[in-house]
Design goal:
Structural class: mainly beta
Strand content: over 45%
CATH superfamily of the largest domain: Outer membrane protein transport protein (OMPP1/FadL/TodX)
Shape: elongated
Radius of gyration: 28 Å
Distance between the termini: 65 Å
Number of helices: 2
Largest sheet: 15 strands, antiparallel
Helix content: 10-25%
CATH topology of the largest domain: Porin
Number of strands: 15
Order of helices and strands: HEEHEEEEEEEEEEEEE
CATH architecture of the largest domain: Beta Barrel
CATH class of the largest domain: Mainly Beta
Length: 340
């Protein structure tokens, strides 16, 4: 009787002993699949070709973002929304070059963001330097340097709703001179180009929709010395909207638009000389509209590929009458992002 009773117990013990390694391995695989894959680094490149009636332009920008807290490659939140939903602190560096037959702009900036009080409050700041060469457009001025800065402060009254205010400025800090044998008289620009406004970020709990709205007011005061001295001012509203629809975890479609409506006053007296008119109409309203539609595909949450089509129209500002300035344009853009 005793051996009869022990036999089943012994059999169970053997089966359990044999099964334990398999159970442990399965548990390890489950934990491995659930483990976080940190992504502290992000590198991206953006490229665009702009086609206009009288000129073409190419834009190139490269960016690096360091996230100390690290994003999670296996996060349930779709890749495009992770920074908005998780709100990690970050540091970033961006370099860019925009070039056309009219002017070129080359620069770089660095900055970051900090989140406080359980990520309910955020602070963000950027600073850099930019060189703008307008020699092909106005040989009298040649080029000038600015030191762009931007600050933003805001909070999240709701988990997926962020509200903030920003201020950005581009003070002119130096200039270059036209070549001695160019035949152009020198023009030096000084002053400040700035914008102040508010921003709203919002997404749905399902991650299907992300909306970013920005509204600002531009205040620009430049003073020109040398050839045709005098001030120039710009005042106007700026609205930006970005809407993204996440069709799948890997695929997002987006639409964004920029609209500006500005009043320019060119008070450089010699520009409006009736005997030798340099500018046709020194006080103007200058509208600007730009729209872009695109998609972004994320492969395994670590490689992002995007393409977009865009275009817009800008009015002619009351500056030197180069016929290439103003009018409509089209744009083809591509972007690549990797997180690791």
């Amino acid at each position: 009787m005793t051996r009869t009773r022990l036999a089943p117990s012994l059999l169970v013990a053997v089966v359990v002993a044999l099964a334990l390694p398999s159970i442990a391995h399965a548990q390890e695989l489950k934990e491995e699949k659930q483990a976080k894959i940190p992504q502290r680094h992000e590198f991206g490149v953006d490229f665009a070709l702009v086609f206009a009636h009288r000129y073409n332009q190419s834009n190139l920008a490269a960016r690096y973002v360091f996230t100390p807290e690290a994003l999670d490659r296996r996060d349930d939140v779709v890749p495009l929304l992770r920074r908005h939903v998780r709100r990690p602190d970050e540091l970033h560096v961006v370099a860019y070059h925009f070039g056309s037959q009219i002017d070129t702009m080359t620069g770089a900036f660095a900055g970051g963001s900090l989140h406080l009080f359980d990520k309910r409050l955020y602070l963000a700041a950027d600073g850099g330097i930019t060189f703008t060469n307008v020699g092909d457009y106005d040989g009298h001025e040649d080029g000038y340097y600015t030191a762009p800065v931007r600050g933003e402060i805001g909070g999240y009254p709701l988990e997926l709703l962020g509200v903030g205010a920003y201020w950005e400025a581009r003070p002119v800090i130096d200039h270059t001179l036209p070549a001695a044998d160019s035949g152009f008289a020198e023009v030096h620009r000084s002053g400040l180009d700035q914008e102040i406004g508010g921003v709203i970020n919002f997404s749905l709990p399902t991650d299907r929709l992300l909306i970013r709205l920005l509204g600002g007011y531009r205040i620009t005061d430049w003073t020109f010395t040398g050839f045709h001295p005098g001030p120039m001012t710009i005042r106007g509203a700026h609205v930006h909207a970005f809407v993204s629809y996440q069709a799948q975890v890997e695929l997002s479609y987006y639409l964004q638009a920029d609209v500006r409506y500005e009043t320019w006053h060119n008070d450089r007296p010699l520009d409006d000389d009736p005997l030798t008119p340099f500018v046709d109409g020194v006080h103007r309203t200058v509208p600007f509209v730009d729209v872009e539609a695109g998609l972004i595909y994320w492969f395994e949450g670590r490689l992002g590929f995007g393409v977009a089509l865009g275009g817009g129209w800008v009015g002619h500002p009351p500056t030197y009458q180069d016929p290439r300035v103003g009018g409509g344009s089209g744009r083809l853009a591509a972007t690549f992002t990797t997180r690791f």
